């Protein structure tokens, strides 16, 4: 097998395409031949040693992927050789093969392409857990999605619309705003040239959004929270802008609003049955055509450095997927 090996987590330039022994699955594991793997923001942080998870060196980055099972380990009963699966295991995806715990594998319906499956679990599970589980989103409510043209942002738009909510999508360029409207956003805000608070006020007749979905953080967090409706829920997804914002605690008091932490990874470990049911529901929505990953494009697995460069420049719209040819 071959894989991108990280021996020194000081940046993308230190990754090397390396020949490695093809491993044999141990107890509870399966060996997956990888057809496609997607690039997520944590995949950039982890090779820069900036992510909360610090894998033992050396490691193969690539948190999310899809492929076919080639071997099963002892005790694996619910999966078999030749079965199509997707998985999100944190590492291992940027290569031709990987070992993964069988419990992390999501069986794929035949209608699910490998490219879509590789771009599915992290963004849609995060957004469903955020909006439906943690945010208790209702059909008559309005959602503001920050960073709306990215992977989790586009998933959030689709899930909110599938729930019957009104969506205001905020992004950094007119092109990204147009993409958000194409996939269902009711209104958009270009927060590089429009005043965020004033535009939110105009679009909501002064009421504000019921739910704010924020994977960005940074300078837009406080004005977005100041705009939230009474009894609003502010969903803290992540900090793609870099700085972790600090909000004055009088704001949730005055708004009767909640600051809600969203950590899908911990949820999937602490509540595995609920997570499995959620993934099954999402797969059903995919087959029905209610949701579909937005693709920035595909690149060969060997072009990982180019993919990282696009992500570092914040040029990716939706998800970027690497494929083994």
UniProtKB/TrEMBL annotation:
Record domain Enoyl reductase (ER): where: 11-322
Top-rank taxon: Bacteria
Pfam families, A to Z: ADH_N, ADH_zinc_N
Single GO term (MF): zinc ion binding
Family annotation (InterPro entries): ADH-like_C, ADH-like_N, ER, GroES-like_sf, NAD(P)-bd_dom_sf, Quin_OxRdtase/zeta-crystal_CS, Zn-ADH-like_protein
Designated name of the protein: NADPH:quinone oxidoreductase family protein
């Amino acid at each position: 097998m071959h894989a991108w090996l990280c021996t020194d987590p000081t940046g993308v330039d230190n990754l090397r395409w390396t020949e490695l022994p093809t491993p044999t699955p141990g107890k509870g594991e399966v060996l997956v031949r990888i057809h496609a793997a997607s690039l997520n923001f944590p995949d950039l942080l982890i090779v820069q040693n900036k992510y909360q998870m610090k894998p033992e060196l050396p490691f193969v980055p690539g948190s999310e992927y899809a492929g076919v099972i080639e071997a099963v380990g002892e005790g694996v009963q619910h999966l078999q050789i030749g079965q199509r699966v997707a998985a999100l295991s944190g590492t291992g995806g940027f290569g031709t093969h990987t070992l993964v715990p069988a419990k992390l594998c999501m069986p794929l319906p035949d209608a699910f392409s490998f490219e879509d499956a590789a771009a599915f679990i992290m963004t849609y599970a995060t957004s469903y857990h955020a909006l439906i589980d943690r945010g208790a989103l209702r059909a008559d409510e309005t959602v503001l999605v920050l960073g709306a043209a990215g992977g989790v942002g586009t998933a959030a738009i689709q899930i909110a619309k599938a729930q019957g909510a009104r969506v205001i999508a905020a992004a950094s360029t007119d092109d990204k705003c147009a993409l958000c409207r194409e996939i269902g956003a009711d209104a958009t805000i270009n927060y590089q040239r429009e005043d965020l608070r004033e535009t939110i006020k105009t679009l909501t007749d002064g009421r504000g959004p019921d739910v704010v979905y924020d994977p960005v953080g940074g300078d837009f967090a406080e004005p977005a929270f100041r705009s939230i409706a009474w009894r609003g829920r502010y969903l803290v997804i992540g900090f793609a802008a870099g700085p972790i914002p600090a909000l004055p605690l009088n704001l949730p008091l005055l708004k009767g609003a909640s600051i809600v932490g969203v950590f899908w990874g911990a949820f999937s470990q602490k509540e595995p049955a609920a997570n499995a049911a959620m993934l099954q529901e999402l797969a059903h929505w995919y087959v029905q055509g209610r949701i579909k990953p937005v693709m920035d494009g595909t690149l060969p697995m060997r072009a990982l450095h180019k993919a990282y460069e696009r992500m570092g420049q914040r040029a990716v719209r939706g998800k970027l997927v690497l494929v083994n040819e």
